[in-house]
Amino acid sequence: MSETATERVSYLRAGHSLKSWLLTTDHKRIAILYVLSITFFFFVGAIAAALIRLDLLTPAGDLLTNDGYNRAFTIHGVVMVWFFLIPSIPNTFGNFLLPLMIGARDLAFPKLNLLSWYIYMIAGLFTVFVLIAGGVDTGWTFYTPLSTMYANGNVILAASAVFIVGFSSILTGLNFIVTVHKLRCPGMTWGRLPLFVWSIYATSLVLVLATPVLSITLVLISLERLFGLGIFNPALGGDPLLYQHLFWFYSHPAVYIMVLPALGVISELVAAGARKPIFGYQFVAASSVAIAALGFFVWGHHMFVSGQSAYASAAFSFLSIAVAIPSGIKVYNWTATLFKGHISLDPPFLFAMAFIGLFVFGGLTGLMLAMLAIDVHVHDTYFVIAHFHYIMVGGTVSAFFGALHYWWPKIVGRMYSIVWGRLAAIFIFLGFNLTFFPQFLLGYLGMPRRYHVYPPEFQVLNVFSSVGATLLGAAYLMPFIYFIHSLRYGAPAGDNPWGATGLEWTTPSPPPKHNFDSVPLVDRPPYDYEVEMEGDNA
Amino acid sequence: MTFIPLWPQSVSDYSHQVDLLVIAFTVLIVALSAPVFILIVVFAVKYRRGRPADRKHSPNRNIPLEISWSVIPFVALVGFYVWSTELFATLRHAPADALQIDVVAKQWMWKFQHPQGQAEINELHVPAGEPVKLTMASQDVIHSLFIPALRIKQDVVPGRYTTSWFTADKPGTYRIACSQYCGSNHSEMTGSFVVMKPADYAKWLSQSSNDQTLAAEGAALFRSRGCSGCHDPASTVHAPSLVGLYGNPVPLQSGEVVIADDEYIRDSILLPQSQIAAGYQPIMPTFQNVLSEEDVLKIVAYIKSLQPGEATQ
Ligand code: HEM
Ligand SMILES: [Cu+2]
Known about the structure:
Chain A has helices spanning 2-5, 18-22, 27-55, 66-101, 110-132, 146-150, 155-182, 195-227, 240-274, 281-294, 310-338, 347-370, 372-378, 382-412, 418-445, 459-489. By secondary structure, chain A is mostly helical.
């Protein structure tokens, strides 16, 4: 195989013009377009976060005005959720890897895939426009009647941005679903799909089923604001809680859109890091689908103190603890996978370990929030902020970085510095905990979220958090430096630098434009590691 | 170094119970996560690549084990579910004799009204050891009344009444916050919660005394806004008498029967067409833009006071 590799043109070199990139239908190039644009939006969101944390150094919030602060956290939330977290892993690694992992030449609808990226960019430009126009101050949740009757003027623009990006999600989801159903190579049965593919598949189902509800909700908001329809306005017979039901019916499943792909990544990283098949493959695969399905029945746990009925709250509380089972299965199965493994402490594995630690903590505090009597106290406080940052930043962002460190050699064909990679993983973990752990305490002490001004006795913990955020920000920058360095100076990676299984590692690095010369044939179970490592058994 | 607070003050029996639940849950978190953290580290050291170790017969699955580590945590969680849901349920059952205080939220202030007519802004005085029930209404957006020392919060939603109750035991001054983001000055929508010895409370009431109780103010509004024109027993318009209405069942035109609680009375004033009492014409106008939430609360207080046998004031 590898002799011919040098003759084949890699996807990176197949055409150098700007046009060859902007009109490409190659899933790998589209993945690169996404990586670049998503990184850009991550920076936009991060600048807003930096402003927030800097401002909270003092109880009086001396840096920003009240409205300035409100706009900063609104744009932080909107950008991070819809322009970073939701598309992050699916649109970059999903795009790049899905066809490679199932032995296909491309996604089912390559042009639709390109269209999804353009839609994403148009929505992104709308968001940047909202920023230039002065921002919005509704919070990313757009609660009514604040958003429809009281907030400043850019609500409709911001809602349009989110509405538009929804189409990108739906099209990407459809494309992935059809691809997994139709384009698996011979022998790639459902029982042999890599766990990353399973998780992307489950995510796509949620994307396609939940996003339309959000779109409708955003249209209703805009209509209500423009024409005073009265759907949510009690003076006209409407109901503000209806809005919350619609919003969370999308947004709770959306948190699984953010975290399921991360869980898939971690399964790949753990298997490769331990050189072992994932313990209980079937359970882990099924748990992705179970999480996706159960995720549709728990939205009411965001509304325990909203005034919804006590019986509804009790039911949603119970359903929420049910979701914990499939998530718990994954964590325990990953741990068991390490037993008698051949564990490497390379950067991808360290990121995976950091992920597990933060995800476990985020998940268990989520269960705490599902307990009615506890949530009544900590709802809408920094406890909640800490919880979802543990899941979304500690979890999803760590997984995103883990994925980048694992597949980077495949994507660009070069290695990066392993030592610096290890340091980055450690610093990100430490910075993260210093930033967000104090927020659990702040929340329990009673500091509400979205607070620009806070009582002075909370200052010390806030300063800890801001110092941690500075460390975390610096740690996030480290990979940018050594990755860019590796593009030029990195040693050639070879086809399979980690000695991993999986079809993507059978292609050259970087893969040729058409992925595989001949259609691959799969005749082995996934994560079939034992064969190669017999010698290590003492 | 400044003192770092790590645990909030706790002033009621309920808040102590919430703390206990939280501490117990923290123990559960440690119990469920410690094995993961410890084993990861142990395995990473013991089975480090290249290190000799016994790796024979490494299992790929073990169904009984997998089932047990799904079921055991779940059973523990169901236990906590029962505990926490019971505790939560107490919040929904205020004692009948609780002191009634009305709360009106608006951008960006809290207004509290005591039954004897005293109103206060961003301060809530209550007697220690006595149950207090809050009935809350919002004039504009959604707010949320959060009293950390009591471990309670409740959203205050335009268009409906929400309630909460507590018995604070320890005299002192504590924080009140708004915890539902409500626009520009959300973080400044705060106040103090003052728990006083009952004697001090009585003194406070008399000092800040108002000549009129809430119900009396409501009675005045009832006349000045024209309600009495139709609902007065002497009126010729075909409208129901309101004496003895509160707390009793009302048959509706639609065939349903509802209990005339605060919410029903409020809706009858603001959305009169939504629930028509059986046997009457839907002729009552809405008072939506005529009465503020405070006015409505006063009129509700007046209607509550109209019990049969008592003279209308
Ligand atoms: C150094 C990194 C970060 C810091 C210091 C930070 C800080 C914060 C803070 C302080 C808030 C609360 C704002 C408030 O309610 O007053 C917040 C909210 C939020 N953050 Fe972050 N954040 C960081 C990274 C991220 C990332 C990477 C994401 C997503 C990937 C994210 C998603 C969110 C979301 C969704 C909210 C809720 C916004 C809202 O309630 O309106 N954050 N963040
Ligand atoms: Cu408020």
